[in-house]
Amino acid sequence: MSDLSIGKLSRASGVKVPTIRYYETIGLLAAPPRSEGGQRRYDKADVERLRFIRHGRALGFGLDDLRALQDLSDRPNQSCERADAIASRQLAEVERRIAGLEAVRVELARMLDHCAHGEVDQCRVIETLSDHALCESDHPKIS
Amino acid sequence: MSDLSIGKLSRASGVKVPTIRYYETIGLLAAPPRSEGGQRRYDKADVERLRFIRHGRALGFGLDDLRALQDLSDRPNQSCERADAIASRQLAEVERRIAGLEAVRVELARMLDHCAHGEVDQCRVIETLSDHALCESDHPKIS
DNA sequence: CTAATCTCTCTAGTCGCTAGAGGTTCAAGC
DNA sequence: GCTTGAACCTCTAGCGACTAGAGAGATTAG
User: Fold this and answer.
1) What average pLDDT does range B89-94 have in this prediction?
2) What is the C-alpha separation between A74 and B126, in angstroms, rounded?
3) Rounded to whole angstroms, how far apart are CA atoms A110 and A129?
4) pLDDT at residue A136 above 60?
5) CA atom of A12 to C1′ atom of D18, Å
6) pLDDT, tens only, A79-89
7) Does the pLDDT value for residue B136 go beyond 50?
8) How far, in Å, are A22, B21, B28, B31 from residue B3 at the CA level?
9) CB atoms within 10 A of CB B108
């Protein structure tokens, strides 16, 4: 079908050229046929595949999850239990991260709010960092 | 003063041993004196410094920011404008991330909610990933 | 046909660690 | 004082998901 260079595929999918090549090296995108001169030639199915990946990345899925989800999507007569499980895990992870960031946001805001904008030795920002006891709540590791 | 081995410093500060050595290699923590046998010997000020770093890391500051904040904290007669600016930037960044993750959370939840738990070819999870047009809103890059 | 733009491979860098190998030093118990 | 086992040392490599750049070859519009 339609013969796409890697640059056209990039523009059609929104995935950058080096990233496409990277996906090929790690086996997330199959190696396409080459032109006589050795350049990669893609078709429309590759555009779809990359859009799938891009959307999944935007939702925070890791490349391993996306590999699994793509496998599922390629063989459609299976139960979607696995897909559900992967997405649920991801949702839980996102909620965990939001909670962590929310705690961090509160502390940063409080820190800035209490700062008298004077000299460093009375700066609440530095002070708070120096002494965790000044925090109202524990905040988990950010990630 | 009190002579701490790297292991004791680690337990006192909550920062892992290899991480302490890593901080030394990148110049975030000054290289301490050594014992006759060549082992690192720390003092209580190092415990404080590492706690400062650990707390900053928990708030999502990068190591470069922490270097700058530590410099400020070491010379206390300056205006805390710089510290404020760094913390404000961090707060903005955290808010940006929360907003992004919130959009992602909504879409993941909607995706899972609409899934009929049947076969993959009707799976809303896979379907949504394949077709960004099914999303209600744009979601920015996760990070 | 030429010139500009793509594309190729390869290596190395990003961030903030973490893991492991293979060897040395320290400190506690006897 | 000696033994033993834990802790310490350096060095290299790896993680995830790319990104950047060098230097060379391919393609395409005019």
Assistant:
1) 95
2) 10
3) 12
4) no
5) 20
6) 788 888 999 99
7) no
8) 49, 17, 20, 14
9) 24
- What confidence tens digit (pLDDT) does each residue in B18-60 have? 999 999 999 999 999 999 999 999 999 999 999 999 999 999 9
Average pLDDT over chain A reads 87
- Residues pairing with A34 in the sheet: A40
Sorted by sequence, the CB contacts under 8 Å of residue B22 that are 6+ apart come out as none
Among candidates B48, B105, B126 on the partner chain, residue whose Cβ is nearest the Cβ of A94:
B105
User: Which chain C positions come under 7 Å from a protein C-beta?
Assistant: 6-10, 15-20, 24-27
Q: Which two tokens stand for residue A11?
A: 């523009």
Partner residue opposite B79 with nearest CB, options A94, A112, A119: A119
3-state helix/strand/coil string of chain A: CCCECHHHHHHHHCCCHHHHHHHHHCCCCCCCCECCCCCECECHHHHHHHHHHHHHHHCCCCHHHHHHHHHHHHCCCCECHHHHHHHHHHHHHHHHHHHHHHHHHHHHHHHHHHCCCCEHHHCHHHHHHHCHHHCCCCCCCCC
- Cα–Cα dist B128/A90, whole Å: 15
